[in-house]
Design a protein that fits this description.
Four copies of one chain form a homotetramer. Chain A is of the alpha/beta class. The first copy, chain A, contains ten helices and 13 strands. At the A-D interface, strand 3, helix 2 and strand 6 of A face strand 3, helix 2 and strand 6 of D.
Chain lengths: 328, 328, 328, 328
């Protein structure tokens, strides 16, 4: 039984909308950033990572987003093209906005942090009239990322993309990706997250992210209750992640799937969620059952956290399959 | 057959959420404001006018909103109390915001304009955590007004109130009340208006307002199509106003009702929509059929446009009934 | 001996730069504004009042400022013209700014307050390139008002006007006019006030205003010390006002002049400073000795505080002379 | 004859006020930034570079500025300390501001550019009350840098420091350092630059910077005229730089000194001005004649442009002396 149906007539497999930015990863690891001296530049941002991941897995991928009119923006554009991602939906800002930056600090494999530059960033300047209905409708699947809801006009652009997707039978995946620093308040976040989630087919987030979304309800924070809530709207699949303890996926039909994690020689924890999402969505599009999707996602995550970068470490199908075989 | 069901157990008849402001009406009329010299102060703002109107018609009314911590704010508070409106949901701003102002200019009965002061206004600073679920759930009916969606945090406060209303079976009326000057763009407006309208039971607006909301659809601007769209969401009644040509009301059951206008000795056109809404909603709550609701609304409108003020001219049931009898 | 020298070749007597706004004076007095219901509209703003005052006294006056592109702005423009003030230096804002408002509340003759609307006001949007060197140089005297220093770009426009005045031998009078609500902090105010005052010929302010300007100095607040400080820069005359106790004027030559106040049937205290300044500057331009200038200013002040308005009550030479004769 | 007198009783030789930021220099040079992949992190900002330069030359140096409360801010703090710069005047921002960034791109030795991150930066948040009169008065010399005048409250902090310096006989050097991207308009820049320059003892800038400052004057852009203007205020020395053609220094006494440039194996042109200023000011403090100061500054500049970094390449006295000997 299929939990979710993709329209196989559509020419593009997958479009992500939202953040395109730059990761600057400290080359010297296992020390505070005060003591590092060089950084390597990568394309970053959760939806960018997922799009790159799904492209590496062999799908036809496009992106809708906004880049700065500078060297960083052009670097991102080139990198997407090099990764076979269609950039016809990527527009260039003309207001002097900058590219968002994330300096990563790896004090130890489990003590990592990020120093963000998010003032006046191009990605949040995407406007509704820069989202093409004709483009969105060509995709089997649209991924929206919570961070793109943080500010106008990007927020409105995402709601419009969501509307177009619904109208044209495009499956919508909502990767919650909650980053408190881009938001005014947790109340504001919860309100827009709920408005968006009501219209999505697949919702993927951590337990903490779902808790944030339920702050106005007086229910106990319970995975079964959370999943049940969304099935009363449009959701068909809800995935709740519990970090080291793995994840749990629910289907509207009532099935419940526990997923574990793979062993890994962890360099840093960044990128685990994005590679998981890429692997999981890939599985869904292949029509696999949920247990298999979750295993594939977990293996992709294990590969990425064993590497220095996020986007650049996204694995191919062969690498993931191989990893599963070796570590199952 | 009842088109809409109110929960008669609830202690409050009606709560409005949104704008509370001050009208400064030029006393010297039929000339440009450059030539006027004195103004009279009234409470204003579309939801304030409607709340006052419904209270005058004898219903138990409350308000959820924010007022400035100054003489204008206190004047509004007193006026609501004097009109038997419960103000337990009205909070006072502490950030130095001001009271919104509308200077009205009456060049001729049909050539009226408004000079607005909407920078840093208290009403748009209402926060989600200032909206009480316990309060909202006590009402049979909640009115939301489009202008309150124009800016954060008021926008989020309204979406939250809407959620509480839905959860507790409170009928939600959406008075579109579109004022371009408070919005960044017409695209932004359309996106939030649609998100809100999807969740409402009764939608009242002008043809132009519905056109604005349909800007991303490639349908022709047609009343039947418009009404039909909203019945696929939660709406039970849709009212489309055509100015001097009257209005048309649709029900989910498929009925369609044409409403005319009453003759009036027009002083100015301001306030016609608010008094119509007050009269129409009053009729719905009384369980009248739609033709009677529309006639009552139109008569209330005719009374208000024959007066100098909006809020202060809202009629009683006797006045409306009397007017209908005389002019039918 | 002349304390200050005006260049009598110059065609204009006096130009003021800065705030043009609207006073809305409650018609019902001796009560809080919560209990008033009508307001009368007047042109207001300290430099506007002074310019009108000096024009009424028979001098040739011009203005450099910015008005909103609305009915209030046009009302101001007309009123200046009607008062024989040259408006060739008054430009109209094109950004959607509004006219500043001051609602006055007269609880008792000595308990008056003002409710200000100063967000996004046109007067503070005057830009340096809207100040004409050719215009400034035509005046014998330029008045700058402290409030115009509160925000960019008006602040820069005033500094540029000051530079032009100095270059072309135009006497500069600085009316301190400190309104805390338009400023970010008292430190910020003091810094720009001092930068401006260093370049002025005549400085007029209250003791409290001079105290604010001396906050970074560890001197005791003493009129002699204050005046002495400014004579080490460019000042020739310093006037320090002590409210009900009158004022004291110092000259660079070392003379010191005590001025009293006239009896008045006070309606409200607003406008006293502006009419005093108008009368005092008029006297200076007539070449009177300082005692006579101060007496003339005090009489003008007494006339204005006995009236309902500020600008509209500015007296003629005959009225002032008459008042002095009757009350000396 | 001494052109300028330092008070040798004062315990600190030199304090700089203003920008502390981070340079991220592309390690791969002679290519556009789109093709670089790693960056090295250095302390940057014109006044920081000059302070480091003067400290390397053996003077006792302090800094007044504001750093972000993050890893970048702490890195700057440590680097200053490591370079024997007193940081008791360096405060930490508590508002969530970030550290300014400058990504440098070296396409060729003569085609270099900078990608700046200047939104919400800590250095421009320095407040007047964070500038200590007791600290400023301990220095023989204060350097102010034009960029710190770009925004409130840093602008006011600099004007206050300038006032304290004047009051306590601290020689003030103004390094114009005009960066258009931090300013609203060139008019605004000129107005504040002129207000500051009027109070300074030494003014150093490029011909283009002086042209910008003279935009409201109708003089021809001529070095003699420029220098003459400032000697009518407080300046004793004016240095006008002409890039590759060297520089020209004027003294109030009427002398005029032409300075050349040294040959160098140029890596990039950044930092030339800062190292020149450090060397020149060092010479002034040593009591050298102007020709010698200029030669020393030029040699320091030649050394820095032959290196990858700015701050980190600042030479010692021995290195400069050696360079002069070899290349004279």
């Amino acid at each position: 039984m299929k939990h979710i149906q993709f329209d196989h007539q559509k020419p593009l497999d997958f479009i992500a909308i939202g953040r395109l930015c730059i990761d600057l990863n400290a080359n010297e690891i296992n020390r505070p950033m005060e003591e590092t001296s060089t950084f390597t530049k990568y394309v970053g941002g959760s939806p960018a990572n997922i799009a790159i991941g799904i492209s590496r897995l062999g799908k036809k991928v496009g992106f809708v987003g906004k880049i700065a009119n500078d060297q960083m923006g052009r670097f991102i554009h080139r990198y997407l093209e090099k990764n076979n991602i269609d950039t016809s939906g990527v527009v260039t800002d003309r207001t002097g906005a900058v590219t968002g930056l994330a300096f990563t600090e790896i004090k130890s494999p489990t003590d990592c942090s990020i120093l963000m530059y998010r003032d006046n960033v191009a990605d949040l300047k995407l406007e509704p009239n820069e989202v093409s209905e004709d483009y969105i409708k060509q995709a089997k699947c649209l991924l929206i990322s919570g961070t793109a809801l943080a500010k106008s006009p990007s927020r409105e652009a995402v709601f419009l993309a969501l509307e177009y997707a619904r109208k044209h039978n495009v499956v919508v995946v909502f990767d919650l990706d909650y980053r408190p620093y881009t938001w005014t308040s947790s109340e504001e976040t919860a309100i827009y997250y709920n408005l968006a989630a009501e219209k999505c087919d697949v919702i993927i987030g951590t337990r903490e992210e779902f808790d944030m979304m339920e702050q106005f309800e007086h229910t106990k924070k319970d995975d079964d209750v959370t999943a049940g809530k969304w099935f009363r709207y449009h959701a068909k699949i809800v995935v709740i992640k519990h970090g080291q303890k793995g994840s749990i996926a629910y289907t509207k039909q009532g099935t419940k799937h526990q997923g574990g994690i793979f062993p890994a020689r962890i360099v840093k924890t960044f990128g685990a969620g994005d590679s998981y999402a890429a692997g999981f969505i890939y599985g869904l599009m292949e029509g696999w059952d949920l247990d298999q999707c979750m295993e594939f996602g977990s293996a992709a995550a294990a590969i990425v956290i064993s590497s220095h970068s996020c986007s650049d470490a996204m694995p191919t199908v062969e690498q993931v399959t191989d990893y599963i075989r070796k570590h199952r």
